[in-house]
Structures are given as structure tokens and as C-alpha cells.
Amino acid sequence: MAKGSSGGNNALARPMKPSAELAAVTGSDNIARSAVVSKMWEYIKKNNLQNPQNKREIMADAKLKPIFGGKDKVSMFEMNKHLSNHLSNP
Fold it and tell me: Domain limits of the chain?
């Protein structure tokens, strides 16, 4: 059986509506959860927001702080939980 054969029930590929806070990083168009994570990492790396002593830790700047529930830093695993709070069905 081929992986990813049509079915369309892959939750990571389903387009979701980003919150206003998340749209500041990803854009306001509906976007798949997998693309949200990619855009977040693109933004984190571009703005040098990984803790140099602990690469699994992400430092929040003004755009990321509202996404991270007001926290100054989160782990990369925690980030996905916060992203879920900013995605809704279109």
C-alpha cells in the first residue's frame, strides 16, 4: 500500500485558519499544520531565536510571545502545543 494515497484525512495536511498572532509569522491564508511548523522554524532561524546553549529552546521575540502564551521561551516540543491553540478550522 502506498503511503499518502488519496484519502485526504491527514490532519497535518488539512488547511487550517491561523489566529491573528500566528498570521503575523505565517501569513493570513489557510495553511496546513505541517507548513505552519516549517514557517515557524524558518522565522526562528532567520531571527536567531534558538538558545545557543540549548538548541531545543526557542526564545520569544515580540511576534512569538503572544503565540507562546506570553512566555519568554519554550521548548521545541512545547511550541507545537502552543501552535495548536492558534489554529482553527476555516
Answer: 15-88
E-state strands within the chain: 15-18, 31-32, 50-51, 54-59, 73-75, 87-88
Question: Is residue 1 classed exposed, middle or buried when 0-12, 13-18 and 19+ CB atoms within 10 A define those classes?
Answer: exposed
Average pLDDT over residues 1-6: 43
b/e map 29-58, b = 16+ CB within 10 Å: eebbbebbbebbeebbeeeebbeeeeeebb
Residue 47 CA from chain centroid, whole number: 15
Q: How confident is the model at residue 84 (pLDDT cuts 50, 70, 90)?
A: very high
Fold of 15-88: MDM2 (1.10.245)
pLDDT digits (tens, 9 = 90+) for 37-47: 999 999 999 99
